Structure formats: C-alpha cells, structure tokens
Amino acid sequence: MDNLILIFVCLLIGTILRRLGKLPPSTPAVLNSFVVNIALPAIVLLHVHEMALTRRALYPAGMAWIVFTGCGIIIILFGRWLKWSRATIGALLLTACLGNTSFVGFPLLEALYGPSSLEAGVLADQAGTFLVLSTLGLFAAAIFSSKQLSAKVVVRRILTFAPFIVTIVALCLRPISYDPSVISILDRIGSTLVPIALVSIGFQLNFKAATLGKYRRELGIGLLVKLIVAPLLILLIYVVIVGAGGVWIQVTIAEAAMAPMITGAIIAEEYGLEPELSNLMVGVGIPISLITVPLWAHVLRWV
User: Fold this and answer.
1) Which among 138, 280, 140 has a CA at the least distance from the CA of 223?
2) Per-residue model confidence as pLDDT tens digits over 104-133
3) 66-90 pLDDT, tens per residue?
4) Contact between residue 67 and residue 99 where contact means Cβ atoms under 8 Å apart
5) HSE-up of 28 (CA within 13 Å, CB side)?
6) Which of 136, 194, 210, 266 is the most buried (most CB within 10 A)?
7) Is the dihedral of CA 231, 232, 233, 237 positive or negative?
C-alpha cells in the first residue's frame, strides 16, 4: 500500500510548501504544465501503445466510457437545475466522471482481490480512463472553459493539446515494438506524474470552513456521483442488463467506484475550471474512497 501512503505524503508536502512560502504562487502552474506536457504524454506513449484488447477486455475498457457519458449527463442536469457556472460543471465532469483507476485503483484492487485482478485494472485504466481523458475529457474541458467558444476554437484546442496528440501517435505506433531503453525512459518520466500532480494539488488545497462551505453542495454531489452512482451504473448495465458476473466484473465495478482522477483535476485547472473545487474533489475524495471501495467489494461478492 506504499502508493496510498505516497498520496498523503505528497499532498502534505504541497500544503507545507505553501504555508512556508518557500515557493512562488505560480508554482502550481509550472508543475501542472510539466504534468500535462511531459509526464502524461510519456505515460500515454507507453501504456496506450502496449494495451491488449480482447473480447473479455471490453468490460473493463468500456467502463470509463460508460461512466463518463452516464455520469456526465447527470452532472450537466444537476448543473442546469442548480444554475451552476460552466466552469463548475466542467470541473465536475473531469473529476466526478473520471476515476483514479491506477495510482489509487491498483493497490486497492491488489489488496481486495489479489494480484490477478490487475489485468482487468490495467485495461480499465489504459483503454478506458486515459483514452477518455484524452478525448471526451479534453472536449468537455474545451467546451466548458468559456462562454464564447466557436467549434473551430474547440477543435483547435483539442488538436493542439499534447496528451491528445500523443494518444494518436501511440495508437499509430502500436504495430512497432519499442526498444527496451525507450520503455525505460518513458516509464521513468511517467512515474513523476502522480507525485508532482499531488504536490501541486496539495499546494492549492484549502480546507478552510469558508472554502468548504462555498463548494459544499457541488462537492457533495460530485463525490456522490463518483463514489456511488458510477459503480451503480456499471452494476446495472453489466450485471442486470447484460447478465455478466464473476470476479472480472467485480473488479471492473470496483474500478468504477475509485476516487476522482488526479490528472482530471490538473486538466480542469489548466482550463480554468474551478481549481479549488477540482482539488477538493481529489483531496476529499481519495480518503473517503478508501472506505467506500472496500464496502463496494464486500457488496459485490454476491455478483
């Protein structure tokens, strides 16, 4: 469970650095730029290139696409009903509709289901979450980042966004085998994503009563959608409608129940989508998910 300890250590480091005043206020912008333009593309180049798709893989791979679409509709409906700003809706689309299927997901899956569960977990992460973030996620970020965006501007933002470009490149390179040295380099660069992203989030986290009060409703709805509605949606479709079952499906539903995606919060901030709310979704959602995901695993034993 070293990954889970690292999460809280990095968040704490970011918070301490802000309080000490040792780094300038622009620090998160610099760290986020590194994550989006260097670390995330390295991960995409490595994992999207190597992912294997089989018929059984469609369940974990399809999970993130279903969650983003279904939960996205719910968030947008709530946003219109409660008259949320476009930035608020966009922030929740990138955090309440995308899960932390790897850094939080993998250690939880291994603890709850054993090492063999990581095969489904990797597919849920690589063919699901990262591809959704690089396509539908970027499209949503561009759409909700401003009130006045033409279709041309939206398309240009997506096509010039480093993770999207690299996703296309990785898909085109699938027939070509990487040299071991290339794999090692990409892996080392990609491994910096989570620590740097978490330090950036910790630097900006604000648990003051005023901040929590300001986003109380949005945070509550966002976490309810991510931690409860998302896995319920997959349970309904895969088990009730399709009739699938077994450990493979249990693992897939557990992945749907994971905390908000760290990189989703970073992308939300890059597009100016309520950074405080995005960071709270991650900072509050991860600790809560350490309780809710095991509860889901207990319930799913009967699936």
Assistant:
1) 280
2) 888 788 888 887 887 788 789 878 898 899
3) 999 999 999 999 999 999 999 999 9
4) yes
5) 23
6) 266
7) positive
Buried b (16+ CB within 10 A) or exposed e, 73-111: ebbbebbeeeebebbbbbbbbbbbbbbbbbbbbbbbbbe
Note the pLDDT of residue 131: 84
Residue with tokens 């279709």: 151
Both structure tokens of 33: 């730029």
Nearest to 29 by CA among 278, 269, 273, 276: 269
Query: Left, alpha or beta for 259 (phi > 0: left; psi -120 to 50: alpha)?
Result: beta
Strand partners, 15: none
Q: How confident is the model at residue 7 (pLDDT cuts 50, 70, 90)?
A: confident
Residue type for 290, please?
L
Q: Which of 112, 136, 115, 140 is nearest to 257 (CA)?
A: 112
Please choose, from the candidates 88, 210, 187, the residue with its C-alpha nearest in 3D space to the C-alpha of residue 140. Answer: 88
The candidate with the shortest Cα–Cα distance to 261, out of 124, 133, 162, is 133
Average pLDDT, the chain: 87
Query: 298 vs 116, which has greater pLDDT?
Result: 298
pTM score, two decimals? 0.82
